[in-house]
Amino acid sequence: MSKQELDNTGPTTNTAQPWRAYEQVMEGESVVTDLASELRRHTGVQEPRDPDQLVSLAIVGAETTEALARQLEAEWTLYTPQQVGVVASALCAQIDAASTGLERLRDVLAVIEQRGETTGTGAARELLLAAADGTRAAKVNDRQLIETLNALPYLGVLPTNAHETIAAVADLLGHAVTLNATHHIEDPERLADRFDEGLGCGCQIKLTDVYGEAWSFHRGDSVWALYRESDGKPTGDGGVVFTNWTELETPDATAHPAHLVAQIRQNIAF
Ligand SMILES: [Zn+2]
Questions:
Q1: Would 181 be classed as within a structural domain?
Q2: Residue 64 Cα, ligand 1 centroid: separation in angstroms?
Q3: How would you write the chain as a 3-class SS string?
Q4: CA of 171 to the centre of ligand 1 (A)
Q5: What is the tally of structural domains in the chain?
Q6: What is the pTM of this model?
Q7: How close is the Cα of 221 to the center of ligand 1, in Å?
Q8: Based on the domain organization, do 50 and 133 belong to the same domain?
Q9: How many angstroms separate the alpha carbon of residue 219 from the centre of ligand 1?
Q10: Mean pLDDT, 10 residues at a time, over the chain (270 residues)?
């Protein structure tokens, strides 16, 4: 299912946890990145852990949420109200898990005291319980919050493949650029295979910066990239090869076209 279809329908299953529903709907589109997969490999382990592993898991969890909060400051962090709903849902799940964790820490402390390995834990256990109650109270209306977010319309049009993306970028850039809209491959199935491999469709945007340098923008190996024509080395058979290029921060083949335009303008003036 395409991102656009998802945005129009919203998660359809398990409304209590839309972040899980989002993952199910986006199956096959690598919604969980390599970095997150590696982290998940550790969080999915069920066996008892030693204290060092648990402490590091807690630290990484806090760092992840702090990083999320930091990155939400950026204009292009999320594209749709439904993505906002998924992230809000995931944050509510974290609050829920955090309050359960704080409660269980109170029990852990009591067990340590029962072993005779500490004493006088009463005040600390009361504070842990108060912290657990406080965090739980913060998520009283999470269901209403998430349903309200998911019900908001998405009125934009997001691309569904790399060709639609580059065509929309060219449209936004207007007469300042030329779209060389010639696919190397026209067969829809072979083109879909290229998209699956992270490649583009063969279309290129040609533009000239304010210094007169000619540039090409197109999709390479799982990235969007800018190539300065003067960096190209002739291969002798009429082709040109590049050894350096500028990759945009956003690798998504179906990134918001205006997001890509903003990054192109960050890299070159034209
Ligand atoms: Zn194309």
A1: yes
A2: 37
A3: CCHHHHHHHCCCCCCCCHHHHHHHHCCCCCCCCHHHHHHHHHHCCCCCCCHHHHHHHHHHHHHHHHHHHHHCCCCCCCCCHHHHHHHHHHHHHHHHHHHHHHHHHHHHHHHHHHCCCCCCCHHHHHHHHHHHHHHHHCCCCHHHHHHHHHHCCCCCCCCCCHHHHHHHHHHHHHHHEEEECCCCCCCHHHHHHHHHCCCCCCCEEEEECCCCCEEEEEECCCCEEEEEHHHCEECCCCCEECCCCEECCCCCCCCCHHHHHHHHHHHCCC
A4: 13
A5: 2
A6: 0.77
A7: 15
A8: yes
A9: 10
A10: 40 56 64 71 68 85 93 92 91 91 96 97 97 81 85 94 94 91 77 85 93 94 94 88 93 94 94
